[in-house]
Design a protein that fits this description.
Layout: H1 7-23, E1 35-39, H2 48-56, E2 61-70, E3 81-83, E4 97-104, H3 114-134, E5 142-146, H4 154-168, E6 171-176, H5 178-182, H6 184-187, E7 195-198, H7 217-223, E8 234-239, E9 243-247, E10 253-257, H8 261-265, E11 271-275, E12 278-281, E13 285-287, E14 290-292, E15 297-301, H9 305-319, E16 325-328, H10 332-335, H11 340-343
Helix pairs in contact: 3-4
């Protein structure tokens, strides 16, 4: 019978393995999972906390949302236009490769003619370069596009992605929603070298308190049943954010971003805990820019370290390969709900 290693040798082997895992960006059973972040706010505030987590996780890339693109709300002939452009910021605040990221609404591609795709690709490429130059960022070899395309817009969107690659001379990557990977026959597979699968926003916040609409493991597993066979290399994005789901007397739902349960619990003058994770508004008042009436129901949805660990364990066993993890997103209030070890 083979003898077990001496305790001291075993301790040394375990220590060496831990060091190797850290060097590999948090290696799971099936390979390395290097970490990176999204940054989605128009006003950039990168302080000591953001730098500490970014460096502590060995991150090298920050997917920085530069601007959004939307079609004319009236559906008229006006060309798609940029909006919510990121404000000027100090790129030296973080030692990172800033990957230009652009969010484009699905309606932008409804009934878009071929010449519109070419024009949009050129305009996006030009504005990306303008934002990069204005903020004195080193050039990235990639443009990342986020769009929740549908079967009806996929041809126009996919053609745009190819036009953007031609116009920019850069690699183009894009996001994948869970429904796009499950129903790939209808949604199609985008013509990019790599994608990022958004493993969050698994359901509608209006579905009620029975589910966590940010990350529900049962729904994640259902959507990803056949994900390992998807014919495109992809990393995964995992959520760190939380929000308040506000329901009025008519059952209508609104979201208030960047709210944690402790925020409601600490405001006894306005919120009364009603059990089951729900609070009742005690009197009319403004809350984070939204006017709440007495009797409104408020619940907070978020992701705990335990839920995040469960999701990562599931993904590691499901995909059985190396892949990157992109956390959404790099912002102190969200980061502080986790330790660096939680995110490794």
């Amino acid at each position: 019978m083979r003898r077990p290693p001496p305790p001291l040798l075993l301790a040394c082997l375990l220590c060496a393995q831990a060091v190797l895992n850290a060097a590999c960006g948090g290696a799971g059973r099936w390979g390395a999972h290097p970490k990176s972040f999204y940054h989605w706010k128009a006003k950039v505030s990168i302080g000591e906390t953001e730098r500490r987590y970014f460096a502590g996780l060995g991150c090298e890339r920050l997917y920085m949302r530069f601007f959004d693109v939307d079609a004319a709300p009236s559906g008229g002939s006006a060309p798609a236009a940029p909006m919510a452009k990121v404000e000027p910021f100090d790129g030296a605040a973080l030692a990172a490769e800033y990957v230009p990221t652009v969010f484009i609404t699905n309606r932008t591609f409804v009934k878009m003619p071929p010449e519109g795709r070419v024009r949009l690709a050129r305009n996006v490429s030009s504005l990306v370069e303008s934002v990069r130059s204005q903020n004195k960022l080193a050039a990235s070899g990639e443009i990342h596009v986020d769009c929740d395309w549908t079967a009806g817009t996929r041809d126009a969107y996919f053609a745009f992605l190819e036009e953007l690659r031609a116009a920019s001379g850069k690699d183009v990557s894009c996001t994948l929603r869970l429904h796009q990977i499950k129903f790939r026959g209808r949604a199609g597979v985008p013509p990019v070298a790599k994608a990022v699968l958004m493993c969050y926003a698994t359901s509608d916040p209006g579905d009620g308190p029975g589910r966590n609409s940010i990350l529900d493991m049962a729904l994640l597993k259902d959507y990803m049943e056949d994900a390992a066979s998807y014919p495109l290399d992809f990393d995964v994005a995992l959520p760190l954010y939380s929000w308040a789901v506000v329901t009025n007397h008519l059952g209508e739902v609104k979201l208030v971003n960047d709210v944690a349960a402790r925020d409601l619990g600490a405001d006894a003058a306005h919120f009364q805990y009603a059990g089951g994770g729900e609070y009742r508004v005690k009197e009319d008042f403004f809350f984070r820019g939204l006017y709440l009436n007495k009797g409104f129901s408020v619940r907070v949805e978020g992701v705990s370290p335990e839920l995040l660990r469960e999701a990562k364990g599931y993904l590691d066993g499901k995909l059985r390969r190396g892949y990157g993890i992109v956390y959404y997103h790099l912002d102190r209030p969200f980061l502080e709900a986790f330790s660096i070890r939680d995110l490794e």
